[in-house]
Amino acid sequence: MWRNCHNILFLMEQYNLLERQVKKVSTLTKTVKLRINVTPEQETLFRQATEQYRQACNFVSQYIFDNAFDLAYLSLNRALYAEIRSRFGLKSQMAQSCIKTVIAKYKTVKEQLFQNPYRYKDENGDWKRITKTLEWLWKPIFFGRPQADLVRDRDYSFVDGGKTLSINTLGGRVKRPFFSEHFAAYLDGSYVLGTAKLVELNGLWYLHIPVTKEVEDFEKENVRHVVGIDRGLRFLAVSYDEQGKTAFVSGKKIATKRRKFQEVRQRLQSKGTKSAKRRLKAISGRENRWMSDVNHQISKTLVRKYGENTLFVLEDLTGVSFEELNLSRRKKQNYALRNWSFYQLEQFLSYKAHENKSEVLKVSAKYTSQRCPKCGTIHKENRDHNKHFYACQCGYRSNDDRVGAINIQLLGTMWVLGDNHPRYERMTVSE
């Protein structure tokens, strides 16, 4: 009897292990921003900590620059740890974090240099490339913004049932309430909180915390919906799904509000006073927060509407400038119509999709606005930009942005069916 029970338990453990191995999971990371309510005395402590941390980072950066760009943490820690603590008064963990921060920055710059080689023409007129390394830097990387990197449970923690934030400063710990919608969800044990950044923005103090979570990967075989999304100016997003349903997110009210922000900005810029500059900074922050909220709402609506196992298909807009897409001169000069964070919308949609076992696929934007969804003919003149209308010789008629969404959706369907690089090629039909 006991032997049979033992065997059953063993088999169940093996099954669960196999299931975890078979189930594909990935790590999802995003940054949560907490606004901290501080007293004047606590604000002084925050400013002291972030400024000393900044100076310590520049000290480490100078050392790396002067020592052949040594990025090995252990050797840097041996050489600099004691002096960082004595010179800048940083606590043990903050001193170590300072070194790691600078190393990470140099590694980022190193990768950026590698991806952008120096190009020149030789004596024969042929283009040549030279790979850039850190030795191309003329001076050390400079840290201009006061900030401090804080390690979870060492430099920052949550007390009082997650309602109060405890932060380590050079003058001791500070315990203060904070503001962030829905933050309690990140303390339920399913998320891992990483090293946070303490920063000041427009007189307010924030703690930026990266949170990670394991989520099930999207699997092509389980796709339930394929949704093509055309992004633009007249409509921020036009979606088209496999059932032939279209949804429009108008950009008219958005453009109107952007114009109002621009008018206020121009008035403040013309004054040039210190108070006007402070006001200008506050206006920019308010506008950015509003833009982020709009993009959050659009992405949230799409993910909630279609649920799990959805493939959202977007055009790859790398190198695409919306002001160049056959807009009039007046529109090209219009700030409100030229500046919208389409990339941010893509980021928000990607993150929310990954949380929901879905995926975002980027496809070639070539001919998506010119191709007839009915006969496949690609003809530039079929699209009337002024009237936002598409008319093909085969008789097909529709809104031009909707046509783009339909063609994008079809590319996604082609990818699901096995075409790893779906794109449209020009085809002609006889008159």
E-strand count: 18
Please trace the helix and strand order, writing H or E for each element.
Answer: HEHHHEEEEEEEEEEEEHHEHHHEEEEH
Strand coverage percent = 15-25%
Structural class determined from secondary elements: alpha+beta
The rounded Rg comes to 27 Å
Q: Helical residue percent?
A: 40-55%
CATH architecture of the largest domain: 2-Layer Sandwich
General description of the model:
Residues 322-329 and 331-337 have low confidence and may be disordered. 42% of the residues lie in helices and 23% in strands. It has helices at 2-22, 40-66, 73-88, 92-115, 252-271, 274-306, 329-332, 335-338, 342-355, 400-416; strands spanning 25-36, 118-121, 127-130, 147-150, 156-159, 164-169, 172-179, 192-193, 196-201, 204-216, 225-230, 235-240, 246-250, 310-315, 359-363, 383-384, 389-391, 397-399. The protein has ten helices and 18 strands. The chain is an alpha+beta fold.
